[in-house]
Structures
1.
Amino acid sequence: MAKKLSNNENGNVFPVQRKKKSAASSDEFTIKPIRKKKSDISSIEAKAPAVKAIKLEDLIPFDKHPFKLYEGQRFTDMIESVRANGIILPIVVRPHTEEGKYEILSGHNRVAAAREAGIEEAPAIIRKNLTDEEALFIVTETNLIQRSFADLKHSEKAIALATHYEAMKMKPGYRSDLLKEIEDITGTPSGHGMRTRDKIGAQYSLGKTTVARYLRVNKLIPELKERLDNSEIGMRVAEALSFLREKEQTIVEGLLMRRRSVLSKRIFSKKNQKKESLINQPSKRY
C-alpha cells in the first residue's frame, strides 16, 4: 500500500507512517521530514543571479562604449515605458575603480531613459572580477541580443565581430560560459555558435572577405570610424587606412579636417558672392 503524504505550512512534503495499534491508544502518526540536499539548494541559488538596487548617480557608462544610444521616437517610447513600468530587466554592472561606483555593461539606454523619467534607482546584477575582455564581450553580446545586426553602424559591426573573433581565441569554454551566463541574465538565447571566421560570416550572412574587412576597420581611431559611419569615407578606404599606425591615422584625420574647413570656406564664399550679385543686380522695370 502506498504511504500517505502530509504537507506542512512551508509546502514541504512528508511521508506519513502509521504506528501499530496498542490496547491503550488509538491510531497515532509520526511525520518524518524529507530534507533537500545542500548541493541541490546551492545549485538553485546559483542559477538565480542576485539583484541589487543601485542609485543612478552611482552608475558610470562603459569606457569607450562602442554602441550609439537610442535617439528620437525609439528613445521617447523607452522613457514612457520606464516611467509607466519602471526598469523590468535588471542592468548588468561591474565595480568601478572609483569607490562606491559601478560601470554599466548592459543597460545604457535603460539608465538614460530612467534619468529622463525621474527614476532614482535601477535593479542591477553585479559582476565581479571580470577582465576588460570579458566585460567588452558582455557589452557587445547583450547589444546584439537587443538590436538587429543589419541596423548597426559600420563601427558597431566592426567591434561586435572583432570581440567575438577574439573570444574564440581564448581558452576552451571561456566564451561558452559567458554566453550561458548572458542567456541566464537576459532570458534570451544568444544564438551564436561561431568558432571560425567562416562561421562568423555565416551567422551574419557576410562573406569571409567582408568579415576580414570589418576586423581591419575595428583598428581605426574613433574619428575615422565616425567618418565611415557618416559615409565621408568608403569601406575600402577605411580598410586601407587601418593598416596605418595610430599616429599616422591621426595625421590623416588632421588633413581631412583641414580639407573640410577649406571646403566650408569655399562654399560660404560662393554663397556670399551669389548673394551680393543678386543685391547689386539692377532691378527690372516694366
2.
Amino acid sequence: MVLHDEKMNRREAIERLLGGSVATLLIAGGLTACRQRKSSDALQANPVTQAALHIPCIACGDCMPCPYGVDIVGCFDVWNDAADNNELPDPKKAASPHYAALTRSFLADYHNRIPLLARAGHCINCHRCEPLCPQHIQIPVFLRQMEWVEQNAENRT
C-alpha cells in the first residue's frame, strides 16, 4: 500500500520520533492531544524526540494569563516559528557544525522575544491552563520540552 496521505506522513514521522508510542496519540493535522497519561509521561521522559513537532497552538490566548507569568502563547510561537522553518536545534545532531549556529539562532530569537520571567522554565506544572485550551494541548508538557531544549542548547554552545 502506497502511503501518500499527508496525515500518514506525519504519523510515520511521529512514530519514528517516538519509537512507535504514537498509538496512544490523537493525530489530526499534527499532535493535538494525548489520550492516556502514559503518552504524556513518554513526552516528558524523552523531550529530545519531540524536537521536530509543531505545537498545535492557535494563539487564542485562552490559556492566559498564566498565574506564574509564563507567556505560553509567545513560547509556543517561538517554537513553532523555528519548527516551521526547520530551525529547531536537534541535540541528536550536536556533532554537526550546523548545530551550534542553529542553536545560537534559536536561543537568540527565544531570548529576544520572551522576557526572562515569562519563559517556559517558570511553569510550575499547576495545569490551570490545560482545561482552558480549545486545542486540548498538554501545555506544561510542551513548556517542559521547550525548557529542556533551551537548557541543553545553552549547555552545548
3.
Amino acid sequence: MRLRSLRRRIEFNHTILNLVFILFCYASKNKLIGGKDTQNKPMINRPSKKIILYWVLGLFFILGLVVIFTDLAEDVWFREGFSWDASIILSIHQISRPWLDTAMRILTQAGEAGAITVAILAALFFLRKHNSLDAAAMVISLMGASAMNTLWKILLHRPRPNLFPPLVIEKGFSFPSGHVTASVAVYGFLAVLLWRNRHYVWAIFSASWIFIVAISRIYLGVHYPSDTIGALVFTSLWLFVILLVRDKYSRTSNTLFRRLLKKPL
C-alpha cells in the first residue's frame, strides 16, 4: 500500500514538474522573465551571469513550491492525512484563553473582510496615482486567487477539523485555507511592492499579516496547519505569475489600460 502511494506521488509530481518547466520555457521565450523590452528589436546581448543565477534560483524556488503543494494536495486527495496536523493544532489549542479567543476572532477577519477592504483601498490609491497597472494587478491577484481556492476546495473536498469544538462556525471545505489565500494575494502583493521601493519595515509589517491570519485559523479550530501551508504555497505561485506579468507590462507600457486604449476601435 505504501509502495503504491509512493509510486502515485512520484508520477503526480513528475507530471506537475514537467508542466512547470514548459511554462517557465514559454515565459523565457516570450520575454516574461528577465531582459529588457525588445518589442521592436531582437535581443543581441547575452544575459549576464547574475541574471542567469537569478533565473536558476527562481526556477528551483518555484519547483520547490510546486513539489510542496502537490505533495500536500496528493495526500489530501487520497485521504492519507498528516501525522503532524493533529499534534500542532492541539498544541496551539492548549494556549487558549478567553481574551485570546476574542483577539483571534478579530485578527482572523484580516483574511476576509480586511483583505477585501485593503485590496479596494490599495486599488483606489493606485488609480489616484495614475497607476492603473498595479490597481489591476491587485484586483486580479485577489480575484484569481479566490477563484482558484474555490476550485481546489471543490476538487479536494477535505472536511474541516473536528478535534475540538471550533471557536467560529465555518461552512465549506477545508483545503486550502481561503483566508490565508486572500492574505497572500493582498498583503503579499503589497509587501513585494513595498520591498522593491525600499520600505522594508512596511513590507515586513504587510507580510506579517499572512502569518497572523494563518495562526488564527489554526487556533480557532477551522483549519489544519496543512490547509494554511497549502494556501500559502499555491497563492505564492499565483502571486509569482501576477508579478511576472505585471513586470512585463511595466517595461513595455506605463499602464495596462493605456495600452488597450491606444488600439483603434
